[in-house]
Write a structure and sequence with these properties.
This protein has 493 residues and is of the alpha/beta class. It folds into 4 domains: 53 residues; 116 residues, Glutaredoxin (3-Layer(aba) Sandwich); 240 residues, Class I glutamine amidotransferase (GATase) domain (Rossmann fold); 34 residues. Helix content is 37%, strand content 22%. The chain is built from 13 helices and 20 strands. The strands form 5 sheets. An 8-stranded mixed beta sheet has the order 8-7-9-10-19-18-16-13. It has a 4-stranded mixed beta sheet with strand order 2-1-3-4. A 3-stranded antiparallel beta sheet has the order 5-6-20. Strand 7, helix 8 and strand 8 form a beta-alpha-beta unit. Helix 2 packs across helix 4.
Length: 493
Amino acid sequence: MSEHEKNIKEEKTDASQGMSRRAKRRIVSVASVCIVLIGVILLNVIASVLTGRYAGMTADITSNGSFKISDESASLAQNVKKDVKITFLTDKANYESYDTYCKQATSIAEQLSQFSGGKIQVEYTDLLKNPNLENEYKSENLSVTDVLVTCGEKYNRLKSDDMFNFDLYGDYQYITSSKAESAIDTAIVKVTSDTETKIAILTDNTEDSYSTLEAMLAANNYTLVPISIETQDIPSDAATVIAYAPTKDYSEKAIEKLRTFLINDEKYDRGLIFIAYRYEVECPNITGLLLEYGMKLEDGLAFETSTSSMMSSGDAYRNIAANFNSTKPYMKNYTDNDLPVLVSMSRAVTLANEKITEPLLMYSSESGICPYSATDDWVWQDYITGNVIVTAQGASGGDNGISRLIFSGSTEMWNSLLTQSGFTNKKYILNILNDINHREDNGVYLSDKVITKYDLSTVSSNTKVVTSVILYAVLPVLILGAGLCVFIVRRRK
């Protein structure tokens, strides 16, 4: 073979090998892309399965975690002992399409299911395609926007206005905020609880609202029954009466009803909670009943001078962190990390008979009582007595049982301050009521929780920073780095 023919043959061989190398590169490139795509798909499938099965594997990037259930709700779900079903009366996509608030509601329900370990199930049933469901609840006139929470034969229907707050713009009704979490929590408590406890609240001569207290009690399966002690009898199935901030004295007849209620035909085992009005009231009849239970009502408002106890800077009367009695009654389920009870504008009592009376909440050793008669030039140092008692209880009874009269000097402690984040007013109050009513609840203390559109749409500042860094720095660097590596490898080949 001539030299020219050899060269031509070698060129053909090189060309065929070059084509083979190019083909291999194409095959490797296509295979790499396929592997990456398959990996991404598998990662998404695995993530979907895990987030659907295990609580806590999803991320809520809203500023205050509006799509994430609270610790109270998680504890409620973990302590559910009966099988519960949460049923949305349309398919999930359709329900969530109504509003972002509806998506938050389904997220809450599904997280409750995850935390319950299977005790709480969530399902989506199209009411329009399931006439049997409508027949089963004929008296309810169900709507596709309703949610049913059921346990055995017990159920609780949640209508749209139970789940959300609405407003009108002309003829158009729109959702302004969500209360879905507290609504679903309350429904779960109601259908799983064996009893619903009644508490009578006296409406005579009261000016202060107790709406927040009422909502908190309803969320924990208590029914608050308003009565006039002057004209009505105390319900026979109520073991607790709340006398809420009377601005005038009760009549002798009314006081006798309360006294008879506490004695309970010598069976006792009753509770009367007297919540004092913040301003001066001439009330000899109420004062006499308190004295029978070892408490003397003081003339004036309690004040605090210890800065460590004052939650509002410079305010000696409002938002005071109270100290617990050293024997710690009504402190079930408290931990070392729990904050104290918050008290505001409180009247004070002293103990007239320590054999039957004990303090429950006190201010610090630097506290005192400002008399109602004090003038503008009064000197607060002259009135410091220390350890002013703002909540106390007295007892009566015997071998058959004990009745308790609990005095609280602060209406705010029982109403507006219930919503103060971190402080334990609702836990402490429910511990008192659960103890009086012999309720062994699961240690969950629920209150109304309202979520606004701002809460649902606003991303936290930390999340914004992290997301920006990933999108504008990390990913571009990774892509450029990967491209540079491929370029260098190909150049070397």
